[in-house]
Amino acid sequence: MRTYTGVAISLGDSVNSDVLHPTSYFSLNANVVKDGLFRGLSVPRDLVTSDAIITAGRNFGCGSSREVVVQSMKLHGFRVVVSESFARIFYRNCVNLGIVPVECPGANRSETGDRLAVNPVEGWLRNETQGWELRFEPIDPRIIDLVREAQGDDAGRFG
Amino acid sequence: MGRTLVEKILGQPVDTIVEPEIDLLMGHDGTASLIVDRFEQGGYQVSYPDRVLIVFDHFAPPATVERANIQNKLLRFAERHKLPYHLYRGICHQLLAEDARVVPGRIVIGADSHTVMAGALGAFATGVGSTDFLKALTTGKLWLRVPHSIKVQIRGTLPPYLHGKDIMLALARELGDDGACYRCIEFSDETETGIPMDSRLTITNMSVDLGAKAGIFVPDACTEGFVRAKGGEYLALAPDADAAYERTVVLDVTSLEPLVALPHGFDQIVRARDLAHIKVSQVFIGSCTGGRLEDIAAAAKILGGAQVYPGVKAIVIPASTEVAQHSIQEGYIQTLLAAGAIVTNSSCGPCAAIDKGILGDEEVCIATSSRNFQGRMGSLGSSVLVSSSLTAAASAVYGRICDPREVLG
After folding, report:
1. Is ipTM over 0.90?
2. For B327, which of B1, B134, B206, B334 is 20 to 30 Å away at the CA?
3. Cβ pair B185, B84 in contact under 8 A
4. How far apart are CA A106 and CA A127, in angstroms?
5. What percentage of residues in chain B have a pLDDT greater than 90?
6. Residue A69 in contact with residue A61, Cβ under 8 Å?
7. pTM for this entry
8. Among B33, B211, B371, whose Cβ lies nearest the Cβ of A87?
9. Could A28 and B34 be called an inter-chain contact, meaning their C-beta atoms sit closer than 8 Å?
10. B376 burial level (CB within 10 Å; 0-12, 13-18, 19+)
11. Which bin fits A113, alpha (ψ -120 to 50), beta or left (φ > 0)?
């Protein structure tokens, strides 16, 4: 699995699925789902691109199991999410839709707009803007296999 | 080494990856609908249709054309593949609790986070997303890691002004909103009075709101009575005395006071009596967390002979048709209507800002549901406080947060 580079969107602790993607954007229409991302938060829209890497605090994605939350990230082209810890259903939804969930204590030190590089298999996160690097326990190979399988299936598609 | 309850049900020690057969798989109009096209285009088959339950409860009935179309799509899907379903019979988790197949030792998977509620009956029950639901639908199985357990021993005497909600808010104050992340919370009722099943269901329901994979009550006489009454098969199941727990919490409820979670999370959980200065614009008694017979009865007791405070919107939603019918038989609905509350049909209602009862800007609602995230019930500028139905009903009388002891005396 390769190194991912991009621009940080920094979120706090226990950021829940309702603010990540308010239920008013629940839909089977991909455009509506895509548009709903971060609508309960103050995230600069110009940073919501395929280049974005979320860095969050603990318990990221807590609350509802609604998979449209992760679908919306997929539709924007997000490839990896870095967080100190994840809520378990959100973690499984990321894996199942082919987005790599990286658990990295200290990830929340990044600020929105920072340039990042992360390698989930080698277990490092580099903040090029602030000039530091963190090591974390490399992602479980079984999880990598499931992510790859999901990427192959293009499971996040609509139809 | 002895085994915890979850190790016994899943059949393996902690941290093992298992792929058990699912006894009952549940999906609803807000989650199962997402996989209909993927299922059909993938040429899949349902592995065990009789182990599936589809519930129409989130858009029940639909308020927009799009939601009507989504619901119809899932309804046709259920009919096409001969999947049993409940159309407008109540909230999925309450229907699982009432289902005779949900008994100790069973494995229940649901495409909804609050599926953990079924653990009150001694089942292993957990929530998943839509893709996991699709996989489970087609294979009859799901991979899981056997979780570590936190033991919660509930002791003392439960006073009449407390419900399971207060017990769970006390535990949330102790553990925090992710204190049980990836864990199983194993509850044992060691109180003198006993905790009624309706309150136990509220407790396990909210275990996911502390991050838990499952919340399971050790089955006992209360479980057996409830399970046999619904025609289910009772299995005595207990953890071993030398089972290993990551942590043990002893909660004595005797001197516990009615609690309220302040917006917008579980980081501030305080006594109801310290919040008398907070006025409310709406009171919501309902949801899978707080819309059972115990809750409707409590609301009727407190609002009986009283009136909802002028200008306050009081919405009561029984969690299922069965709860609604019992509430009518007991006269609770008549009492609530006479007091100025409205009672709507069994559904998720405004809990996730889906249906009638949405909050406008700057509104303050006290709710018996489980989540008070920003915008959870409507406007991002509104606030939700979470409490028991006793506290919520007392607040409806006074138009402000009210400790139920002020009304009950």
Report:
1. yes
2. B206
3. no
4. 11
5. 99
6. yes
7. 0.97
8. B211
9. yes
10. buried
11. left
